[in-house]
Amino acid sequence: MTIHRRDFLRAAATGTLALGAPAALVRAAGAQGAPEGAPKLLRALTRTIEVNRKPATVCGLQQADGSAGLTFAEGDTFAVELRNELAEPTTIHWHGLTPPWAADGVAGAPEPLLEPGASRRYAFPVGAAGTHWMHAHTLQEQNLLAAPLIVRDKDHASRDEQEVVILLHDFSFTPAAELLARLKAGGA
User: Fold this and answer.
1) Helix (H) or strand (E) holding 6
2) pLDDT per residue as tens, the chain (188 positions)
3) What secondary structure letter does DSSP report for 139?
4) Model-level pTM?
């Protein structure tokens, strides 16, 4: 059987389009944000990571599909439901955004911490494009309760570029409360 170059190129292009189009459509749909009235679910949870070949139990912020962080387009509504799946109360600060004061994620100012098993909905304008982050305003942030919070500008989808977001965390097997106590006592 002989395969001609043009037939091969046509088949390769068709296969590439068939395989790549669904992923592109999924990415494009995700970039639009949640449908009107349907907030993005963000889970504060416990997870296990490996550090120096040892398991470490840490916190995390994940969407329903398991991805970390949130992405919005400039001008979107920040429509998010935060669900606390941790064993302790928490709150999340949307660093870089300008939410109403009551939704700013500062413990007790004015909303109380979100109790385990509870959810809270947020809705406010996202604002200008930028690379931000979200994190706890408790010692949970030192236990990795933080994630990227990206607001893309309006022409982002038209550019031919791939974005890679890297969020670096400090980590210690020593509990954050113990580290804080050492610092307050004058030592590390």
Assistant:
1) helix 5-31
2) 555 555 544 554 444 444 443 333 333 334 444 455 689 999 999 999 999 999 999 999 999 999 999 999 999 999 999 999 999 999 999 999 999 998 998 887 888 999 999 999 999 999 999 999 999 988 999 999 999 999 999 887 788 888 889 999 888 999 999 999 999 998 66
3) G
4) 0.76
Phi, psi for residue 122 in degrees, rounded to 5: -125, 140
Burial of 95 (0-12, 13-18, 19+ CB in 10 A): middle
CA angle 59/60/64 to nearest 5° reads 140
Place of tokens 């990415």: 27
Using a CB cutoff of 8 Å and minimum separation of 24, what contacts does 178-187 make?
Answer: 179/142, 180/139
Give the burial string for 18-31 (b: 16+ CB within 10 Å, else e).
eeeeeeeeeeeeee
Residue 77 CB contacts under 8 Å (≥ 6 apart), including other chains? 33, 123, 124, 125, 126
* Closest by Cα among 153, 35, 45, 33 to 92: 45
H or E, element range at 83: strand 77-84
